[in-house]
């Protein structure tokens, strides 16, 4: 009980700090110190997305893994050293695709040439994700800027339930999101990120192997079993989160779920739980509403637990503390 109270107080304090820090953020933060900031990021992400079309999904997942546990501070970008195991090398982050890291590093390199020691890695990640989503059909939304980067990144600081798991029951997911100030509807909207990207077969094979009462369309389950049949020998085998329009950001993810075409256990859970099912139905029939709510939830996530002023730093390299 004492441990639970401490954890709840931690997230409460983080929320209060986030509100204070958010007030220091502005959309034109770099208008004088780095006027080409947005152009440089846009050029970088466009080139990367053209050559590697999975970049948008990779960066979006990286952004969520950075922000959701302890706030948007670019701590997940830091590499481990001989003395410290960083967040990115914790077990829950080992499957993060390298293209997400790479696009931020490329943008940072270009920005350091144009405006040395001016733009934070956390701001780069937030804007890069927004712009990448637009390139694949997603909604545009304003990003407040002025974040600082964390001076600490330790895998030991990630709590056991720091991030939602594909196998998590809906009750657990609701608890994780609401403890951070997100509503059930915002949770469902953010789940729509699964309309792009892929998941490794290890995340779903146990569930697909069960014939009955899994929520899968039988033909879809057969196809998944075949696609993932060799995953034990090749753990990199993956399948698209959205089998219908895997590279387009749209509302097809929500249309798939009622048809048994959701990929992960948590996807199916959204339709079986009465708290979340109405929002799945809403977004399945109204893409404009999904885009509006997703954009709002992403804006809210992007300022969660941010650092400003002397509470953080502007890293010269995104993968290393100054």
TrEMBL record:
Top EC group: oxidoreductase
User: Which coenzyme or cofactor does it need?
Assistant: Ca(2+); heme b
Binding annotation for Ca(2+) 1: 66, 71, 73, 75, 87
Give the E.C. number(s).
1.11.1.7
Q: List the keywords (alphabetical).
A: Calcium, Disulfide bond, Heme, Hydrogen peroxide, Iron, Metal-binding, Oxidoreductase, Peroxidase, Secreted, Signal
Kindly identify the residues recorded as the active site: 65
Family matches, as PROSITE patterns: PEROXIDASE_1, PEROXIDASE_2, PEROXIDASE_4
- Could you give the cofactor binding note from the entry? Binds 2 calcium ions per subunit. Binds 1 heme b (iron(II)-protoporphyrin IX) group per subunit.
Single Gene Ontology BP annotation: response to oxidative stress
Q: Which Gene3D superfamilies match?
A: 1.10.520.10, Peroxidase, domain 2
- According to UniProt, residues marked as the site described as Transition state stabilizer are 61
Sites where the protein binds heme b: 194
Work out whether the entry's keyword set contains Iron: yes
Name which cysteines form disulfide bonds. Answer: 34-115, 67-72, 121-318, 201-228
Plant heme peroxidase family profile domain span: 24-322
Which family does the similarity line name? Belongs to the peroxidase family. Ascorbate peroxidase subfamily. Belongs to the peroxidase family. Classical plant (class III) peroxidase subfamily.
What is the annotated role of this protein in its UniProt record?
A: Removal of H(2)O(2), oxidation of toxic reductants, biosynthesis and degradation of lignin, suberization, auxin catabolism, response to environmental stresses such as wounding, pathogen attack and oxidative stress. These functions might be dependent on each isozyme/isoform in each plant tissue.
Q: Which PANTHER family match?
A: PEROXIDASE 63, PTHR31517
Protein name (record): Peroxidase
Give the source lineage, highest ranks first. Answer: Eukaryota, Viridiplantae, Streptophyta, Embryophyta, Tracheophyta
